[in-house]
Write a structure and sequence with these properties.
The complex is a heterodimer of chains A (215) and B (483). Chain A is an alpha/beta fold and 215 residues long. Chain A has eight helices and seven strands, in the order E-H-H-E-H-E-H-E-H-E-E-E-H-H-H. Chain B has three domains: 161 residues, Aconitase, domain 3; 91 residues, 3-Layer(aba) Sandwich (Aconitase, Domain 2); 178 residues, 2-Layer Sandwich (Aconitase, domain 3). The radius of gyration of chain B is 21 Å and the shape is globular. Chain B: Belongs to the aconitase/IPM isomerase family. LeuC type 1 subfamily.
């Protein structure tokens, strides 16, 4: 996982609540056995005017000019601004893979779905939960000025607006630590290998049927 | 000090280590694997030169991509026409062989949708932690198991460490009290709950479903309810263990036997919330007020009773909801205030991890028996949840009832619930579907999904539009749930 460092980036607004993972990456693209290459199909049904197929060259597909990510002013956006319950629906990690592959490093919304929340952090994407009021103001800011950027200071848990206003956000210490250091959490868990083995022994003695296989 | 909830007990029984930073290591008893969310996890293991921690905790079966026509299935993997899908199913087979993980392959009679297969085999037991790279893993909570969907990185983490990094959720109890009306099923109950609390109402919570109406449900009905906990935002849905749970599990292949069975049952009896357990949130619904449900929009909480109508976005509680409703009506091609019974259907899908078990098929067959699918319906299909469900249905003659009525009788898999195989909606088509999600494009590009119970789907197939199963002649759906 890439280290997450202090950065500032262009913000793209997706003014829609309950953006589900089917919308982020439609199912036909889940057939890939790789972790990469999903960016061209991010928001496929919103972004293109035709139905996409896996493995297709997307460079000649008709673009939906109304979709924000197709508008030149949001080119190179690294921060996605969204509405409540972002990432609801399925557990597909292809959703954060697609966001990351497209170039997004941060999503800001009033709330996120639980499984998506976990999946995003495991792929180096920082999800920032701000109040509905703060999100409304950011939408207004993006709308008002082209090239609107936000500075993201994970270390101090602040989003800094172009006019210098700092919006504080919460993130749990473990996820923050992993993001800042680009850590693989399997490696961290395996440092507790002895504790896991000891638990497993005790668990098996107490409830042997949990370890049973059919004859 | 107040007592523990069922969720608290399951959490405590699996807590390996609580870290200072608020995260915990939780031991995982069972991992179910399928072809879509596992290849990158195995690849990750391979790249890091790691081995699975405990092979026998894993059970695999292909389900999302598999074709459902007999002709294609007869050829095994080779019958999968889509080369990309074929590679994915083949990759699951290869990984299971390489690592020595038990897999029910494409034409094994035990193959099926993971959330049908696990319980059917007794591979899901009360008191277990169960994970799978699929959000509908909440299904297994019907057994008093702590079960939830995880992402692919977590699948890899569980393979490598037998643990999950987790944070304790909050406790919510959803009580459904009273007696369900005839023709009102588990599916209607859970849709009504989602309509009540919303698609984010359960975010951050483990929901325990309780109350007399929940206790009266069969295991299959309970699985339908827990299955859709995620559609209310909750990763975990739970139901306390009782006689119904224990009777269902007896003699299942993976269930304990003899003395171990007795010890297990004694242990499972404690898997209920203490009478003085404290919940962070409690929601109560009256069973008598729930009628057969139909979703009209593009989110599972956009749902109403069969006697209702499509809402007017202008009446929405805030601007965000108003915009969502307006957008949903546009996508669905519906008018504000249109009667639900006036919605005409093009296709009907009976299947999915929500509603593809034997009782679901019996319920639908009771409505279909002696009737014909309306001429205006382009396709009505029944897709059993597993090879064993299919076999049981055929032993009962349900396949013949469906075929005579004009339904297609298919091979087991996820099928048109998410349309990763060839079973899908065309743009603009309305589908009465027993599945779990009505998101835009979910069942096919531009497709319009209406979530309903199996009996309601069968009745819609025959009428060509939605009808109230309670208005059908006796012996039909109104008695289905008593079967």
């Amino acid at each position: 996982m890439k280290k997450f460092t202090h950065f500032d980036g262009v913000v793209a607004p997706l003014d829609r609540a309950n953006v589900d993972t089917d919308l982020i990456i439609p199912k036909q693209f889940l057939k890939s056995i790789k972790r990469t290459g999903f960016g061209v199909n991010l928001f496929d049904e919103l972004r293109y005017l035709d139905e996409g197929q896996p493995g297709q060259d997307c460079s000649n597909r008709p673009l939906n000019p109304d979709f924000v990510l197709n508008q030149p002013r949001y080119k190179g956006a690294e921060v996605l601004l969204a509405r409540r319950n972002f990432g609801c629906g399925s557990s597909r990690e292809h959703a954060p893979w697609a966001l990351e592959d497209f170039g997004f490093r941060v999503v800001i919304a009033p709330s996120f779905a639980d499984i998506f929340y976990n999946n995003a952090f495991k792929n180096g994407i920082l999800l920032i939960t701000l109040s509905e009021e703060d999100v409304d103001q950011l939408f207004a800011g993006v709308e008002a000025s082209e090239g609107y950027r936000l500075e993201i200071d994970l270390e101090n848990q602040r989003v800094i607006t172009p006019d210098g206003k700092a919006l504080a956000f919460e993130v749990d210490a473990f996820r923050k630590h992993c993001l800042l250091n680009g850590l693989d959490d399997i490696g961290i868990t395996l440092q507790d290998e002895d504790a896991i083995r000891a638990f497993e022994q005790k668990h098996k003695q107490a409830r042997p049927w949990l370890f049973r296989q059919p004859a | 000090m107040s007592g523990q909830t069922l969720y608290d007990k399951l959490w405590n029984q699996h807590l390996v280590k609580q870290r200072d930073d608020g995260t915990a290591l939780i031991y995982i008893d069972r991992q179910l694997l399928h072809e879509v969310t596992s290849p990158q996890a195995f690849e990750g293991l391979r790249l890091a030169k790691r081995k699975p921690w405990r092979l026998d905790a894993n059970l695999a079966t292909p389900d999302h991509n598999v074709p459902t026509t007999l002709k294609e299935r007869a050829e095994g993997n080779i019958g999968i026409k889509d080369p990309v899908s074929l590679i994915q199913v083949q990759t699951l087979d290869d990984n299971c062989v390489e690592y020595g993980i038990e897999e029910f392959k494409i034409n094994d009679p035990r193959q099926g949708i993971v959330h049908v297969v696990g319980p059917e085999q007794g591979a899901t037991l009360p008191g277990m932690t169960v994970v799978c790279g699929d959000s509908h893993t909440a299904t297994h909570g019907a057994f008093g198991a702590l079960a939830h969907g995880i992402g692919t990185s977590e699948v890899e983490h569980v393979l490598a460490t037998q643990c999950l990094l987790a944070q304790k959720m909050k406790n919510m109890q959803v009580r459904v009290e009273g007696k369900l009306g005839l023709g009102v099923t588990a599916k209607d109950v859970v849709l009504a709950i989602i309509g009540e609390i919303g698609t984010a109402g359960g975010t951050g919570y483990a929901i325990e479903f309780a109350g007399s109406a929940i206790a009266s449900l069969s295991m299959e009905g309970r699985m339908t309810v827990c299955n859709m906990a995620i559609e209310a935002g909750a990763r975990v849905g739970l139901i306390a263990v009782d006689d119904t749970t224990i009777e269902y599990l007896a003699k299942r292949p993976f269930a304990p036997t003899a003395e171990q069975w007795e010890a297990a049952v004694a242990d499972w009896r404690a898997l209920v919330s203490d009478h003085d357990a404290a919940f962070d949130k409690v929601v109560t619904l009256k069973a008598e007020e729930i009628e057969p449900q139909v979703s009209w929009g593009t989110s599972p909480d956009m749902v109403t009773g069969i006697s209702g109508q499509v809402p007017d976005p202008k009446a929405a509680r805030d601007e965000t909801v108003q915009r969502s409703h307006t957008r949903a009506l546009e996508y669905m091609g519906l008018q504000a205030n249109q009667k639900i019974t006036d919605i005409k259907l093009d296709k009907v899908f009976i299947g999915s991890c929500t509603n593809s078990r034997i009782e679901d098929l019996r319920e639908a067959a009771k409505v279909a028996r002696g009737n014909k699918v309306a001429d205006s319906i382009k396709l009505a299909m029944v897709v059993p949840g597993s090879g064993l469900v299919k076999r049981q249905a055929e032993a009962e003659g349900l396949d013949k009832i469906f075929i005579e009525a004009g339904f297609e009788w298919r091979e087991p898999g996820c099928s048109m619930c998410l349309a990763m195989n060839a079973d899908k909606l065309g743009a603009g088509e309305h589908c009465a579907s027993t599945s779990n999600r009505n998101f835009e494009g979910r069942q096919g590009y531009g497709g319009r999904t209406h979530l309903v119970s199996p009996a309601m789907a069968a009745a819609a197939a025959i009428a060509g539009h939605f009808v109230d199963v309670r208005s059908l002649p006796a012996n039909d759906a109104t008695h289905a749930q008593e079967a």
